[in-house]
Amino acid sequence: MNGILATFRRELRAYFFSPLAYVVLFFFLAVNGIIFIYLIGQMNDPRAAGGPPLGYFFRATWLMLLLLGPVLTMRLVSEELRSGSIEVLMTAPVTEGQVIGGKFLAALVFYGFLWLPTVLYGVMINAYEKVDWGPVGAGYVGIMLIGALFLAIGIFASATTRSQLLAAMMTAAMLFLLFLLGVFEELVNNDVAKKALGYVSIWSHIDEFANGIVDTRRLVFYLSGTLFFLFLASRALEDKKWR
Amino acid sequence: MIEAQSLSRRYGDFTAVDGISFSVKEGEILGMLGPNGAGKTTTIRMITGFLPPTSGKVTVAGKDLFESPREARRQVGYLPENVSLYPEMRVSEYLAYRGRLEGLSRAELRQAIPSVLERGLLTEVKDQIIGTLSKGYRQRVGLATAILHNPRVLVLDEPTVGLDPKQIISIRELIRQLGREHTLLLSTHILPEVELLCDRVVIIDRGRIVAEGTPESLRESWMGNPAVRVAFKDAPADAAAALAGLPGVVGVKDGAAGGSWLLECERGSDPREAVFRTAVERGWVLLELARERGATMEDIFVRLTTHDAVETPPAAETQTAEPPKEEQREVAS
Fold it and tell me: CB–CB of B111/B61 below 8 Å?
């Protein structure tokens, strides 16, 4: 417990003390804002399809996670491996799992912090037209679940190498593959394959979440996937000492 | 306090440490000496639990490092060779973080941090960002974190490397103080440091222990017979014969200058008094009478770790080429 908590506190501070965090925050909000303005503009057209604007918002913005995942996680373990601070870290009475867990939670909290200002969009719309908060909440659940999986994948990549660049590239490649599986779902004709791809397709998941559906199968998929990659990350860190 | 039993560590085909066994008793300062690439850092990493040994076993304060790693690690404070800290943190923040990692409570932290700041002479930089500190200060921060949780064992890997002479003196002073309260394992390749600080020495070369003992006993067993230098005025003709007849004297050699001799003596004997009496009896004017400086740690070290062509096994070429490889692998390849 000490290990998780101490690592969590230090990593969260590290996020807020690094210029990267503010650059990420700035661009994330800028792009989000542009998407939001564009969406509202389009939906004001009487000929536009109806529906809750924030539903479209989630469907569009989740794509940014493909970039956010690598950027937020690349430093987490690689930096310790490169600088050698891993040596005093892993000779403290903590386990690899605790260290990875603490780092993951810090990344997740920072990630949540990035999304926090977007709640204002809901509040703004609510001033003009009543917002159905249920689907919005479901959308955020989806965003957090997808984010958790992406961050776990990123931490795993970061634990395998001392180069941040390599970690970021590996993460981006894995996330892109996951993204493509959703595209393939639309392309395949085989029913079984379509179903299987549908199960892992983030596209269809975010659609469901944005419509207010929180399916237990999705919860299981994201939570088990997250744990699986965190487990791999702690094994990767442990493996470093055997070679 | 520390028991290492036939520790070995291989990196691929290269054996960095080859069956090292030693123990450090409670309250002792053990120096680990060896040329670069001898396997000191690898050994130390196995003792602190950073590297698992390929074979062998380590216990610290009675706890096996691999059966109960957390209990064992709690007893160890470790200063690695390259102290790397988080540059964006302030000194006191970093200490608080390390304390929490070690499982110290808030109250314990409040007590421990000011005390290690003071001991490490860090109080005036406690609010500085670590990235702006000089190497000497960072080394001290590393030492401060090593003693923060008041471990029974301290392991310091080359604590004075890369420091200026003044900093070296102050770090050594700190180490000497720490040695009074902790069991200390100190690795170094700086010889005077060993003689200055250590109760006992282990010399490692090519992954093996080549000598072990107190600095004095090592010196004694490696320096050969003690010698005494004598010089008389006007070089009396029968001096050599008279000196050879003295009790305890095994051989007499002519010294560098005319009228001086070098007496080789039996171990444990000191013929200086006899030389003086002989001089008085015969009316010779004694100009010089001194014990030759015995072997230093340096002589012993060089003798034990220099490999000339004859005794070098055929595999030596790859072996001497290997040490830098070990450095590269330092953290994780």
Answer: no
